[in-house]
């Protein structure tokens, strides 16, 4: 009998698919007693448990034959129609996906060939880097900060290359928390329109603004300008519950059609029960729910910033988020966030080192803090511990 | 502003991803009044509506923070452990997937490079062909019938090529309904072991046998023989409800690890609520549920066979399924199942033409009939109509 060496049996692509180092680190943070700012999880106290329980039972009793049966790949029509009305598009422009992560995989599948250039912010969402990487593209990056991507660097990159698409999170970026100002959005869109550049706008955090209102999305600005090249992703993960895995893509019908064909081969369709449940949960009282979520996160962000202002030495820089779930911290050049991670774990506090958010490396002195899952007291205690670890690292540096 | 031609913006792969012709045909069968044997849908009267309603409400009330939160990529541990115990493996050998379709996509992603040979039965499951095709493999096929793949043809193929894997549905094959006898299973396994061939066993219909018991799976036989090269797929779609999209892969831990890494990039994890719900539904009374399902499908198959025996002219051949959901029909050489499809639609009856189940073409005179969703009366009336269409086609041929 021949022995099997799986590493030689797998294809080339399998070598590119690796466990994210972060996920390995995160396992260490599950220890009891650790206050973790590491996860990107939404606040569980905001989940609509009771409402979902009542609605799920009603759905299964009253239309179990639909909720439990195979469904259309495009999604449950009433949910598509609801999203369409919410965003001012038509249902043919909406595809329901099994989380936004699936939309990222479909983007790779449909747009990226081996070696295709694809343009990202540095840092950018790790799950996007991971999804795209499986398709073997060539990553181009532009630096991004509190006001989004560096537009000069972006223009230079676009003058040299024509990427298959530009992937951006303009509002409350993961991991940096950055928010592109309106003027930057307009300028970026101009550049895209001049070049016929496809822009993928990931707007998972769209509703989590702390100010008076939301900035218009690139997608909305592009619609006004008559430009069809923006593909829009968003999700119910941050405004209802991520465990349901219900998200959506909005784009021109010809793009939706190709994504739908790709999705057929990937999971046939998103679970029907979950889609009906989301529809039942959003069709009434959604604005009030969003208000509660915004108020909650704003208070948590405030608690973290107060603690950071009190506990952090002046050598350390951090963002002041205008929305979303994250504070992005930068240690003095030359210091390692992974070294800090180990030191912090000894203080029973955890975060995510920033390195893996950079598609082409770098960012070793950066880290991401999430304030979403903890209450005010634990946030303050966690930052006190982190401050101690930071001071310890600085003292030995 | 540059105009956008999406077909040039998409990658090479997008050209391979096409709508299945069947799905286009199926749309025609949704017309009111049409009796459709076309879909591969399970019988909705077997869905555990009331039980699922009660359990879902309880889960969301009692552990909503878990059911609605992000979960581990490998799956909800108690469900993995339940599957492991059911199949006599360890939980580390089980990955929960978002339907078996996702497992097929992951297989392609992990094993197939552009041009890799992959061996399938002809006919085989269309969803597998579709999932693999996106990765650009070279399909090799061996003819398969009521007793599974032609082992002589299989041996010849394996003497010439070493495919990345052999994909098989040994029990109640979709679409042919075929069942590989025990002796053939043993012989196939010997061939695989001699060559170190990876065998993917898709056992979605494992519990739908009409006889006294189930034949041992290739996976079980391989375990007995100490051969690690069988990857086993199955699902709760046919024994609980497909709309929940909960299925699983069983394989060596090193394979599960690579699939888990690939799944991270694809949808992060299968919806947690759905996994807990499946676990709650199977952990009690599952054997009795399976008995009910078997009895129901057996009676439906019987009803279809009686009608076929009565209505079909002798020129037409069809299988007598020993389990599963399908009868496979072969028209006289030279007749077209697509032509019959059009004629049948005029009689308000539908089925799936067999052509798309053949990865490399052929099978134009074959078709698949599902008896799963209709009751006895409608099955008989549908077959009466189909008989009329067949006789019409034969008369004009």
UniProtKB/TrEMBL annotation, chains A, B:
Pfam families: Aminotran_1_2
Positions of transmembrane segments: none
Keyword Transferase: yes
GO molecular function: 2-aminoadipate transaminase activity
Cofactor: pyridoxal 5'-phosphate
Domain Aminotransferase class I/classII large: 52-386
SUPFAM superfamilies according to UniProt: PLP-dependent transferases
Highest taxon listed in the record's lineage: Bacteria
Keyword set includes Transferase: yes
Gene name, Swiss-Prot/TrEMBL: lysN
Key words of the record: Aminotransferase, Pyridoxal phosphate, Transferase
InterPro entries: Aminotransferase_I/II_large (IPR004839), Class-I_PLP-dep_aminotransf (IPR050859), PyrdxlP-dep_Trfase (IPR015424), PyrdxlP-dep_Trfase_major (IPR015421), PyrdxlP-dep_Trfase_small (IPR015422)
Enzyme nomenclature, EC number: 2.6.1.39
Designated name of the protein: 2-aminoadipate transaminase
CDD domains: AAT_like
